[in-house]
């Protein structure tokens, strides 16, 4: 029976992944993590509809003890193994807006965003999809700005690459990829929606469908790479 772990599932793209998986895969176990299960109203409503298939575990990705506790709970639910791990949690910046220039950058704010991705303490997975962003590509950076967010996604991309090497060895190989979901209509991107043409602002349903199409076609050939929503490889 397939088991998936969606990390950062309280809302936005992570919540949509949970809905997609529960809808599409019979007998699936979805383990959804979020900072504050009590306040995750939509995720809890989804659990009420899928009481035996959806399990909610608290996890704050910038809190080491919370990561350890969540990893232990995952083991209890599923013997420690998941077939698909989606790392989704992310913030643009603690203020809600990316920095436009160097004068807006402070080390404290930067650390908050950076820390979002400085972890992957989860258990064994057959596919690990790290939800990154195009702005995390050094090659593609023609505009500058958004220091913390770009740096955090760049670090996440390096984690994808490193993990693909480490988890590509041995018998239980794991395919590790970074994925750019497009510009998606969520809280995170809300301050910038007015600058995005409507056809380029994806619903969470549309974005997750694109990303699952990519995930479903992954083989070890793809590990350690970065793909945009349309399946094109992006240079790091
Ligand atoms: N939306 C876009 O256009 C876009 C584009 C490119 C990439 N992305 C990436 O897609 C991913 C999902 O973003 P979204 O658009 O769905 O944003 P969102 O609706 O704002 O959701 C962000 C999620 O991250 C969680 N989160 C934030 N800090 C966390 C922490 N310390 N520990 C655990 N969870 C934490 C939030 O949980 P709480 O409810 O507890 O705050 C929430 O579930 C992010 O990695 C983002 O960078 C989004």
Automatic annotation (TrEMBL):
GO cellular component terms, semicolon-separated: cytoplasm
A molecular-function term among this protein's GO annotations: oxidoreductase activity
Pfam families: adh_short
InterPro entries membership: Fungal_SecMetab_SDRs (IPR051468), NAD(P)-bd_dom_sf (IPR036291), SDR_fam (IPR002347)
Region listing for Disordered, in residue ranges: 99-119
UniProt cross-references to CDD domains, sorted A to Z: carb_red_sniffer_like_SDR_c
Protein name, per record: Hypp2183 protein
Taxonomic source organism: Branchiostoma lanceolatum (Common lancelet)
Annotated gene: Hypp2183
């Amino acid at each position: 029976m397939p088991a998936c772990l969606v990390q950062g599932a309280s809302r936005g793209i992570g919540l949509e992944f949970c809905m997609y998986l529960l809808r599409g895969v019979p007998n699936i176990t979805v383990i959804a993590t979020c900072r504050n299960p009590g306040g995750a109203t939509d995720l809890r409503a989804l659990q009420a509809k899928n009481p035996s298939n959806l399990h909610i575990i608290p996890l704050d990705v910038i809190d080491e003890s919370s990561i350890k506790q969540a990893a232990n709970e995952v083991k209890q639910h599923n013997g420690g193994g998941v077939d698909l791990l989606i790392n989704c949690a992310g913030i643009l910046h603690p203020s809600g807006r990316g920095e436009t220039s160097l004068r807006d950058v402070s080390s404290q704010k930067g650390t908050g965003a950076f820390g979002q991705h400085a972890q992957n303490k989860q258990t064994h997975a057959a596919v690990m999809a790290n939800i990154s962003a195009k702005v995390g590509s050094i090659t593609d950076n023609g505009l500058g700005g958004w220091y913390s967010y770009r740096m955090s996604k760049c670090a996440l991309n390096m984690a994808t690459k490193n993990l693909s090497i480490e988890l590509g060895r041995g018998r239980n190989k794991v395919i590790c990829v970074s994925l750019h979901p497009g510009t998606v209509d969520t809280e995170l991107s809300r301050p910038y929606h007015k600058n995005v043409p409507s056809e380029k602002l994806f619903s969470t349903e549309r974005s997750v469908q694109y990303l699952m199409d990519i995930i479903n076609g992954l083989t070890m050939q793809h590990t350690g790479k970065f793909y945009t929503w349309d399946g094109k490889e992006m240079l790091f």
